[in-house]
Amino acid sequence: DLEGVLDPTFGDAGLVYVQDSVALYSMFIDSDDSIVIGYQNGSNQANITRIQENGQPYTMLQAGSTFGTDGTITDVFGSSVGAADQVKITVDADGKIILAASISGVNFMKVRRYLSSGDVDTTFNTDGSSLSVSMGGSSSDRPIISRLMANSVGQYVITGYADYNVGTETP
Fold first, then answer.
1. Residue 10: CB atoms within 10 Å
2. Beta strand residue intervals within the chain, DSSP E
3. Contact 109/133 with Cβ under 8 angstroms?
4. What's the confidence (pLDDT) of residue 61?
5. Which of 3, 134, 153, 158 is least surrounded by Cβ atoms within 10 Å, i.e. has the fewest?
6. Which residues are registered as beta bridge partners of 24?
7. Is the backbone of residue 154 left (phi > 0), alpha (psi -120 to 50) or beta?
8. What gap in Å lies between CA 157 and CA 1, rounded to an integer?
9. How far apart are CA 84 and CA 144, in angstroms?
10. In the chain, how many H helices and how many E strands?
11. Position with higher pLDDT, 63 vs 89
């Protein structure tokens, strides 16, 4: 509340636990007052979890539809590619969720768009496949995503850089 006291009616006594989360990278409140969280799980996969206004996962939305499995989507971007890191999410004006993650060991970012229901948007990148964005440099460079934004006409901006000094830092 406004005094900083946890709301006991939200989630579990004022807290929401996101299972298997390792690194929380981005979070926002969408037009339905849902909390949408982008994070990396313990298997180094990109995840999106959508939580209802009352703190419960979206296992049942309006008209009986669901969002992923127990309110969570896991995107492996092709598990042979590399580990997902720096997971960023945003929502565009149409309520579509855009997911971007840097992929370790190959020096590029992957971007995919989901419908508000959690289904892959098959109109994105022609057939719903993820879009690869090269960061330049070599495969040992670590891509860092600084920000992911959407404007009111459905255009997206991703800012980031390649860390060319991976493994060369001195303590």
1. 17
2. 21-29, 35-41, 46-51, 72-75, 84-91, 97-103, 108-114, 131-134, 142-150, 156-163
3. yes
4. 45
5. 3
6. 39
7. left
8. 34
9. 11
10. 0, 10
11. 89
Whether pLDDT at 168 is above 60? no
Closest CA to 110 of 57, 120, 13, 53: 120
Q: Which two three-digit tokens encode residue 35?
A: 């909390």
Q: Which amino acid is at 143?
A: P
* Cα Rg of the chain (Å, integer): 17
Per-residue pLDDT tens for 30-80? Answer: 877 888 888 888 777 888 888 888 888 776 444 455 677 777 888 766 555
- DSSP class of residue 136? -
What is the average pLDDT across 112-121? 86
- pLDDT of the residue at 136: 62
* CA 5 to each of CA 1, 13, 163: distance values in angstroms, whole numbers, following the listed order: 6, 11, 40
CA distances, 118 to each of 56, 58, 73, 154 (Å): 16, 10, 7, 18
**Would you state the structure tokens that stand for residue 54, as one six-digit string?**
């009352």
